[in-house]
Each structure stands twice: as structure tokens, then as C-alpha cells.
Amino acid sequence: MKPLQAVGMGLVIVALGAKVAGFDLLADPLGWLLVLYGVRRLPQLPWSSTVTALCTLALAASVVLWFPAVPEALADQDASLEWAASLPQIVAVATLCAALARLAQEAGDRRAYAWLRTALTLLVLTAVVPVVVLSVEPGAVAGMLLLGLVTIVVVIVLVFAYSSRPWAAPPTDRRLDQTTPS
After folding, report:
1. Average model confidence (pLDDT) for the chain?
2. CB hemisphere CA count around 73 (13 angstroms)
């Protein structure tokens, strides 16, 4: 499996939910483990240690949030607490997109760079818009959820679409590609 395919599958698991008795059968921690597996296979990734640390933080947050009582307690207290609990995941994906955009830019892949920067912008909006919306209209959660959904779908599509790009392959895979006759 290519590194960005692992990242994409991990994000699919994080994005999807199949709840039984309050527990998500597609446990987000498993998704974050896949994301970490993919990230670690990209040694040339800019800010690799930062991306890895943020993905590990997102993994830790997802473990805590997997237990149904935690998100319920946050929702009962205030919608802003739910938003705050999602920030480690948003920041991890945003930093990953920024690092991938840098890789694409260094490789001269302008289109990938532009799309990954667009995804980064959407992620920043996903992180910031709730602050504004919740301060003005505490009940306006639907629009924020739609923005978050569109954003994660865009990121998932991009990481799968770019998984075969040379700049997204580990050095060992790139050497194999160069020696394999076409």
C-alpha cells in the first residue's frame, strides 16, 4: 500500500461512523493509526516530526472521544467544547496538507500544490468558522458540519489522487519505479 493510500484509508475510517450502542465500529483510533503508518513511510515529508506528533495527538484525542460518554458530556456542556475536541484532528490534517503541498511544490507539481493549498484553506476555515458562528448563532451547527464534511471529502480525494505521484512515494518505491521496465 502506498503511503498516501494508507493516509486516505485512515481518513475514510475517521470520517465514517457506524455506531452501535454509542460506540463507533469504525473506530477513529484505527484510522489515525493508518494515517500515522502512511505519514511515517514518507521520510522526505517536510516537518515530518511535527506532522507525526500532531497525528499522534489526534490519535490520543480520538481514543478519548471514542467512548460515548465523553462526546455526550461535551455536547451537554457546550457546543464549543465539541469544536475544541475536534481541533487536534483538524490541525493534524491541515499540517499534513501543508507538508504535502510543499512536497508537490518542490517537485514542480503546480496543480497538486494548488489543490492541497485549497484543502489547507478549507481546513483552516473548518477550524475557525465555528468560533464566529457559535458566538453569533449557537444553534447553527448544520453549516459547520457541512463545511467539515466537504473538507474531509476533498482531502480524502486528494490524497488518493496524488498517491501515485513520484513526490508522494517513499525513496525505495521511487527507485523500484525507475528500474522497472515499462
Report:
1. 90
2. 8
- Stretch 162-176: mean pLDDT: 80
How far apart CA 101 and CA 108 sit, in angstroms, is 10
Distances (CA, A) of 70 to 1, 13, 29, 104: 34, 20, 15, 38
**Cell, residue 112:** 497538486
Q: Which amino acid is at 9?
A: M
Among 55, 65, 79, CA closest to 19: 65
Please report which helix (H) or strand (E) contains residue 15, including its range.
Answer: helix 3-15
pTM: 0.89
**Rounded Cα gap, residues 95 and 48, in angstroms:** 10
112 neighbors 165 (Cβ within 8 angstroms) = yes
What's the rounded Cα separation, in Å, for the pair 49 and 58? Answer: 14
